[in-house]
């Protein structure tokens, strides 16, 4: 187990070694992290280390922040170094529970299952060095609770029982969404408990059920529920009381499914993924449908992310069925398998739940297969058997190792961006306006309160940010900045002013408005935001009263350049010498190409222009985009905002409380 764990950690260093040549991603002597949400927990850990527990927006109560701060205090490494390496060292712990589950099928089964569970494509992506997020322990905790439940299925051990309840409680505190997996475990145990007469099994179900069901609704009292669950061990010999309590628990479990779980799932945006309508009767573009990790997957991508290849996927599925047939306790893996299958319809992030289960299935299949080949008791057959087993293992590992070699994701920010953010003057109460992808990073480096971030990216906020950044009327952007500083929501504004249409709303925002507020607002414009500006603009291309979607204009950012030819998404090619724009079905002419020093005119009648951004990217867009707040912030002058910091990667604007 230790060797397999060391191997799974060791291969993760490949990413760090390759990134050593990219000095632009090193800040404070450490490679920067590649998870947007990671900066949320980083801010909490930093505030714990600096004893700034009073900061209202800091996640100092998050368990990942507490664990990180503890590790920093117990080791000679900096916070930035721990943030980089902790995901790999904790994420690879998944090999231990999986190898314990596979050990009955032999040595090679355990090795195969352990290695793939630690480096499987999707699992590696979310536990690689730098992916600082709660995912590093989610699967480890889910598998550990599974292993304890399997061990207690037929053999009672009071110490393991107590550890199971404590671990379950900690898991719910660390990552509350594990309750869905644990409800699956509990449902299976309840069904089995109907037919099993052993008191010990009923104690297992009762103790686990108390922690899970009551922990869902009253998490602040989890310690009490753990103690209550442990006391069921005292009732081991009282069969009558245990039987009554078991049926009470079963009824409670069914009630939770009918009146809480199914209604919650049906109404969840993760299930519908449609344009949402809030309680005020306003229409917004749904957030979830624009997040790549929540998008549906093609079948090939689905099986690749889970098993590395469709053949290994099918073999792993066959292996897990075989494993359940040989040991009915392994039926407990089905909640993880079902949640992983959910990824095919509702988002690739769920594939990590299926990775260790299909790895277990593949290990079991190879282990059982090897029991029936080269079984003659001779030295030569033993050598053949071991060689053949090694070939099987290498073939099973190869797709995942190849993925690790090719998967070189860039950090969220680079050193230049972090440096600019850290130079923004800090004062308590100051706020930042940017797209939500960068909200947590802004909070970490600039210590500003972000209006929109990974935890505050609801539809109404995204509409306001999108409207502020894409509006071609600066007064609208200026008034939205005032709204943000005044802590007033769009719904409150509409209700107070009795606005009934999109025209009335935009007309109101065009007026000379005055709000009461304090503090300063900084608008953060990373140049990398050009890549997603078309997506950002889409959130305000909607009539919030009727739900009507407005068309977006042409806005493309260059992907590569070959001489005078610049390539864009969708096969669009621009020749900056002739001004010709070649699309898949037509040829257009550019009006003008704007460089930092020169302007080249091609066709005055055309509505298309191209311009080179400070980060050397070329933008191909319709001319009226030059009036958008975002491009004026980069290239032009704004009356209500002053440019205070800039380099080739980021621009920072400060809101002027009095417009010029």
Written overview of the protein:
The chain is an alpha+beta fold and 660 residues long. The strands form five sheets. A five-stranded mixed sheet has the order 6-5-7-19-18, sandwiched between helices. It has a five-stranded mixed sheet with strand order 8-17-16-14-15, with no helix packed on it. A five-stranded antiparallel sheet has the order 9-10-11-12-13, with no helix packed on it. The longest helix is centred in the middle third of the chain and has 29 residues, at 239-267. It starts with a helix and ends in a 5-residue tail after the last strand. The model has no long low-confidence stretch (mean pLDDT 86).
Secondary structure layout:
Blueprint: H1 2-19, E1 26-27, E2 30-31, H2 38-49, H3 63-74, H4 79-91, H5 95-102, H6 107-119, H7 121-125, H8 135-154, H9 158-174, H10 179-195, H11 199-217, H12 222-231, H13 239-267, H14 269-272, E3 276-277, E4 283-284, H15 299-307, H16 310-326, H17 334-341, H18 343-346, H19 351-370, H20 379-406, H21 415-423, E5 431-433, H22 439-445, E6 449-450, H23 459-470, H24 474-485, H25 490-497, H26 502-509, E7 521-526, H27 533-538, E8 555-557, E9 560-562, E10 565-567, E11 573-575, E12 580-582, E13 587-589, E14 592-594, E15 599-601, E16 608-612, E17 618-622, H28 629-635, E18 641-646, E19 650-655
Parallel strand pairs: 5-6, 5-7, 14-16
Antiparallel strand pairs: 1-2, 3-4, 7-19, 8-17, 9-10, 10-11, 11-12, 12-13, 14-15, 16-17, 18-19
Helix pairs in contact: 1-6, 2-3, 2-22, 3-4, 4-8, 5-6, 5-8, 5-19, 6-19, 6-20, 8-9, 9-11, 9-12, 10-11, 10-17, 11-12, 11-13, 15-16, 15-19, 16-19, 17-19, 23-24
């Amino acid at each position: 187990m230790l060797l397999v764990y060391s191997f799974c950690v060791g291969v993760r260093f490949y990413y760090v070694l390759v990134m050593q040549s990219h000095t632009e991603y090193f800040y404070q002597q450490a490679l920067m992290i590649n998870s947007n949400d990671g900066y949320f927990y980083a801010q909490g850990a930093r505030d714990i280390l600096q004893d700034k527990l009073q900061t209202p927006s800091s996640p100092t109560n998050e368990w990942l922040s507490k664990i990180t701060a503890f590790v920093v205090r117990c080791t000679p490494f900096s916070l930035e170094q721990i943030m980089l390496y902790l995901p790999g060292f904790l994420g690879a712990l998944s090999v231990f529970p999986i190898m314990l589950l596979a050990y009955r099928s032999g040595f090679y089964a355990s090795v195969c299952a352990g290695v793939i569970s630690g480096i499987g494509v999707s699992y590696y992506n979310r536990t690689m060095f730098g992916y600082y997020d709660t995912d590093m322990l989610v699967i480890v905790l889910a598998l550990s609770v599974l292993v304890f439940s399997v061990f207690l299925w037929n053999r009672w051990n009071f110490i393991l029982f107590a550890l199971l309840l404590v671990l379950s409680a900690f898991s719910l505190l660390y990552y509350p969404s594990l309750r869905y997996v644990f409800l699956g475990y509990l449902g299976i145990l309840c069904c089995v408990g109907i037919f099993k007469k052993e008191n010990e099994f009923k104690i297992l179900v009762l103790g686990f059920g108390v922690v899970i069901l009551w922990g869902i609704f009253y998490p602040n009292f989890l310690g009490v529920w753990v103690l209550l669950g442990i006391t069921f061990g005292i009732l081991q010999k009282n069969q009558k009381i245990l039987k009554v309590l078991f049926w009470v628990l079963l009824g409670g479990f069914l009630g939770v499914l009918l009146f809480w779980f199914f209604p919650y799932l049906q109404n969840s945006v993760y299930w519908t993924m449609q344009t949402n309508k809030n309680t005020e009767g306003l229409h917004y573009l749904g957030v979830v449908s624009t997040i790549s990790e929540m998008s549906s997957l093609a079948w090939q991508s689905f099986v690749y992310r889970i098993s590395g290849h469709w053949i290994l996927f099918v073999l792993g599925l066959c292996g897990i069925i075989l494993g359940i047939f040989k040991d009915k306790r392994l039926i407990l893996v089905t909640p993880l398998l079902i949640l992983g299958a959910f990824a095919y319809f509702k988002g690739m992030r769920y594939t990590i739940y299926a990775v260790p289960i299909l790895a277990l299935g593949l290990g079991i299949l190879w282990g059982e297969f090897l029991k029936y080949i080269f079984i003659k008791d001779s030295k030569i057959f033993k050598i053949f058997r071991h060689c053949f087993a090694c070939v099987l293992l290498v073939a099973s590992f190869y797709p995942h190792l190849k993925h690790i070699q090719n998967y070189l994701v860039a950090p969220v920010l680079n050193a230049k961006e972090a440096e600019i953010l850290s130079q923004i003057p800090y004062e308590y109460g100051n706020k930042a306006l940017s797209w939500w992808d960068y909200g947590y990073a802004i909070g970490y480096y600039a210590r500003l309160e972000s209006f929109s971030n990974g935890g505050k990216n609801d539809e109404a906020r995204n509409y306001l940010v999108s409207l502020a950044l894409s509006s071609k009327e600066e007064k609208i952007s200026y008034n939205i900045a005032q709204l943000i500083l005044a802590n007033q929501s769009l719904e409150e504004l509409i209700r107070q002013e009795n606005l009934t249409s999109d025209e009335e709303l935009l007309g109101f925002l065009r007026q000379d408005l005055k709000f009461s507020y304090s503090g300063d607002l900084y608008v953060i414009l990373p140049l990398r935001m050009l890549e997603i500006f078309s997506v950002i603009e889409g959130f305000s291309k909607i009539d919030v009263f009727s739900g009507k979607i407005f068309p977006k204009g042409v806005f493309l950012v260059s992907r590569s350049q070959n001489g005078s030819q610049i390539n864009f998404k969708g096969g669009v090619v621009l020749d900056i010498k002739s001004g010709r724009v070649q699309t898949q079905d037509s040829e257009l002419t550019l009006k003008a190409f704007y460089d930092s020093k020169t302007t080249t005119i091609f066709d005055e009648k055309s509505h298309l222009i191209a311009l080179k951004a400070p980060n050397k990217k070329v933008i191909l867009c319709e001319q009226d985009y030059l009036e958008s707040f975002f491009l004026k912030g980069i290239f032009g002058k704004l009356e209500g905002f002053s440019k205070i910091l800039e380099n080739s990667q980021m621009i920072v604007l400060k809101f002027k409380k009095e417009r010029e």
